[in-house]
């Protein structure tokens, strides 16, 4: 059991290293989502934290909003689309351009 845990940890470290070094193949999925200023009213209709990094949004934060009304940190959603096979909302799997 202990050896399995060590193997898993090593594999995760290797994967994390690849991600941090941007060695994953990037796609050309650059989606231009609107950059909007977060306000507390948005939490009534969407999430109050980025569902990719789990950072809670604060009043005045600049966030990107999908056409399905989900909001994300700019860096998180840009990376999500860059490394996705096809651009889809991480929350509901809809095409963010429709």
Any overview of this molecule?
The chain has 98 residues and is of the alpha+beta class. It is 30% helix and 10% strand. The chain has two helices and three strands, in the order αβββα. The protein has helices spanning 2-20, 74-83; strands spanning 35-37, 62-65, 71-73. The protein has a three-stranded antiparallel β-sheet. The mean pLDDT is 79.
Mean pLDDT: 79
Query: If strands are numbered along the chain, what order do they take across the biggest sheet?
Result: 1-2-3
N-C termini distance: 47 Å
Helix-strand sequence: HEEEH
How much β-strand is present in the residues?
5-15%
Describe the global form. Answer: globular
Number of extended strands: 3
Q: State the major sheet.
A: 3 strands, antiparallel
Tally of helical runs: 2
The residue ranges in which pLDDT falls below 50 over 5 or more consecutive positions are: none
Q: Which class do the helix and strand fractions yield?
A: alpha+beta
